[in-house]
Amino acid sequence: MAKKVVIIGGGAAGIDVLDLLLRGKEGAEKMEITLIKKEKEGFFSTCGLPFALQGMYGIKELELIEPNYYIDKGVEFGTGTEVTGINLENGYVSVDTGEDIKYDFLVIATGSKPFIPPIEGTNLEGVYTLTGKEDGERVEAAMNANRSGNALIIGAGLIGLQTAVAFSKKGINTTVVEMLPHLLPTILDADMTSIVQKWLHKDVTFLLGKPVSAIKGDHQVRAVIVEGEEIPADIVLISAGMRPNVDVAMKAGIETGESGGIVTDRSLRAKKGKSYLNNVYALGDCVEVIDAVTYRPRLSQLASTALIQARVVANNILGISSSYEPCLSPTVAAISGLQVGSVGVVSETARRYGIKLKVGKAIRYTRARFFPGRKLIIVKLIFEAHTEKLIGAQIISEETVAERINELTLAIKERITANDICMRERCFEPSLTMVEDVIVDAAVKAQK
Do 233 and 251 have their domain in common? Predict the structure, then answer.
């Protein structure tokens, strides 16, 4: 008899599990798969929205896979539908159509939802978040209607900064307000974020270390209050971080941890009470992970994290034993032509957990100094002081950042030391690299 698999959520995590189950042909043929998602699209790439708003392509192009693709493969692909309850004892989920759907395996991939600050005025017209296609279309319409107007973004994370670039390109006066004292606080140290701020300062105004106290207007937003100062705003984007979407899981009695995400074991089985459920898995933005440096619980709300977790979940459902290891969350982003990358811990996180540091920072070129088209590259490496093992890295340049972050992710996993980096052979070709790479230079400086 065919096993019934129900997947709640059709973002990157849920779709990855679905795709991997379908690829595991022999196992998938013995399964009846149902995916339930509240959005109307098939697979929509939310992380591409800021670039669509910058005019690089249309928002419609971000629907990478339409529902019929999966329906034709025999999947019950339910769009525009929301799960209202999970009955763990009897093995079924309830949906807002009134139907109960039985499962043998349940996959919870409910994603995340934007954090809305507890301030006056967040429900006014002209106040937006950016978490899906409909959000993107509303923001785009507001941008086109408010050329030469004023926009204010609450939060200086990656999405906030990338959207600030989009507003600025439309000729909209743009201000970014961040409660913490510097940009990108979760992935970069203050000295590195100052480079990003300088890169953007002609196009964007920054108010750092200042909380928003209210959003003002009658029905339509007209201003934002920041430490008593009234700043005009026709558009407000709330980009103050994402929280795990765990309401339906918690209602069913599934455990959440100190980060707010669902607690799982290494097989990504969800926990209820004192035990892990053999047939209920959770992954993606809604789960708590263990950090590979601090070994403390945290969130890792990245599509790249979800893909690895999906492999673990799909393998286990298909009968292939698989486990998820502590994670490093390598991150890269393009912000107005500047590439920013980070992996491991930032200095503040390390210090918070009592880790003493050695730090090396270097500036070089991406190619030989005589070669046309070379770009400056800034690298900061963070080592644990006693062992000199690499535990964090931050890179800013106009090119080659993603490749280097991937290299340094592996280096942290393999517990590479500063001396290992200095003594390792590297390739050289003047059109592609320097003889002594910037990563080596940073490691040498950390040793000194």
Answer: no
| 94 Cβ contact list (under 8 Å, min separation 6) | 83, 84, 85, 86, 87, 100, 101
Question: Which of these is catalytic: 47, 286, 422, 427?
Answer: 47
- 267 contacts 312 by C-beta, under 8 angstroms: yes
Q: Give the pTM.
A: 0.95
Sign of the alpha-carbon dihedral angle for 113, 117, 123, 126 = negative
How many Å apart are CA 338 and CA 397, to the nearest integer? 6
Which residues constitute the domain of residue 100? 3-113+243-317
**pLDDT tens digits for 282-323?**
999 999 999 999 999 999 999 999 999 999 999 999 999 999
Residue located via tokens 């980009």: 239
User: Among this protein's residues, is 427 annotated catalytic?
Assistant: no
**Are the C-beta atoms of 165 and 333 separated by less than 8 Å?**
no
| 3-state secondary structure (DSSP) of residue 275 | strand
Kindly report the three-state secondary structure assignment for every residue of 115-148.
CCCCCECCCCECEECCCCHHHHHHHHHHHHHCCC
H/E segment holding residue 36 = strand 31-36
For residue 280, report the phi and psi dihedrals to the nearest 5 degrees.
-125, 120
3-state secondary structure of 249: helix
How far is residue 243's CA from residue 254's CA, in Å, rounded to a whole number? 17
| Counted domains in the chain | 3
Neighbour tally for 187: CB within 10 Å: 22
pLDDT in tens, 373-420: 999 999 999 999 999 999 999 999 999 999 999 999 999 999 999 999
**CATH number of residue 414's parent domain:** 3.30.390.30
Torsion sign over Cα 46, 48, 51, 52: negative
